[in-house]
Amino acid sequence: MRINTLKTNPNACRPGPATEWALLALLATLWGASYTFIKIGVATIPPLTLIASRTLVAGLLLLAVLRLRGVRLPRDAASWRRFMLQACFNSVLPFTLIAWAERSVGAGLATILNSTSPIFIFLLGLGLQGAEKSSLLRLVGVGAGLAGICLIVGFEALGGLGRSLLAQLALVAAAVCYACAATLGRMFRGLDPMVPAAGSLLSGAAVLLPASLIVDRPWTLTPAAESVLAVLALAVFSTALAFTIYFRLIRTLGPMSTSAQAYLRVPIGVAIGVTFFGERLAPTAWLGLACILVGVIAMTLPTRSRRVEVGLDR
Coil, strand, or helix at residue 163? Predict the structure, then answer.
């Protein structure tokens, strides 16, 4: 009888919105912690080698898990072209741009500029056919979230706006890349979330690893044990696990709602810095946190069409 019920009601075994919210918070935590892992890792490992190691280890780990699960990656050229396109927008270009830009841009301003991807997803929703449609409520959420980030980081960080202009434009370009990646992620909707995660990471590693070998010559490096452990944590938790959750949420919540993690991960990253590195909060941090919560709620409230599409409207 139970088997027949599941067959006639496919939504019965689907998780509810609380699960998706929990996964969104977990994704924000994993990516918020990546700031700390990167900070420890780049102390003795060059950024390009760190990024290449991050994508390669994460991709191989997911490939091993897929093999254990009996799931195979697609073999057709069209799928791998999509994986490579996703890799370019979600790892190769933004990771490289951010690593280059943060050599000359303060961490606070970099955090603000790197968190503008929801704005570009909103704009893509206005002008790109087939993209998730934007709404006034989501525009309010985008604005509230960005204001919250400025309040948490401190508006004084904006004082550096206009200096090191190329580096700042690189950070904005990275945010545009993330927005494109989230929008393009919808083309993997019919796949197990771990498949596009593994495919895009392996594709990214295929680009980054040769660049690392040429530029950094990693065999000449002597990284500290702390940096190596940080890279492993970055690869396993903030990349392999995080990308799997990310592609699932793109399918269930949509690009705009998933992009809310860009706002959530800022207070999480700041909290880690305060707890483990003795960093100080800006006086307006608590007000900023309230703005971020308002923004995330506004951005993640599903429309009627999305509730029906993913089976959350019961």
Answer: strand
Given a cut of 80, whether residue 151 has pLDDT beyond it is: yes
pTM recorded for the entire structure: 0.80
Q: How far apart, in whole angstroms, are the C-alpha atoms of residue 85 and residue 22?
A: 29
Query: Is residue 252's pLDDT more than 50?
Result: yes
Whether the predicted pLDDT of 25 surpasses 50: yes
Euclidean distance between CA atoms 303 and 299, whole angstroms: 10
Exposure string over 35-52, b if 16+ CB within 10 A, otherwise e: bbbbebbbebbbbbbbbb
Burial 212-240 (b: 16+ CB within 10 A, else e): beeebebeeeebeeebeebbbbbbbbbbb
Q: 14-18, 137-141, 163-167: which range is least confident on average?
A: 14-18
Tell me the residue type at 4: N
H/E stretch holding 110 reads: helix 107-114
Task: List, for residues 41-65, the tens digit of each pLDDT value.
Answer: 888 999 889 999 999 999 999 999 9
Report the candidate in 285, 283, 262 with the shortest Cα–Cα distance to residue 112: 262
Rounded Cα distance, 296 and 284, in Å: 18
Measured CA to CA, the distance from residue 209 to residue 200 in angstroms comes to 14
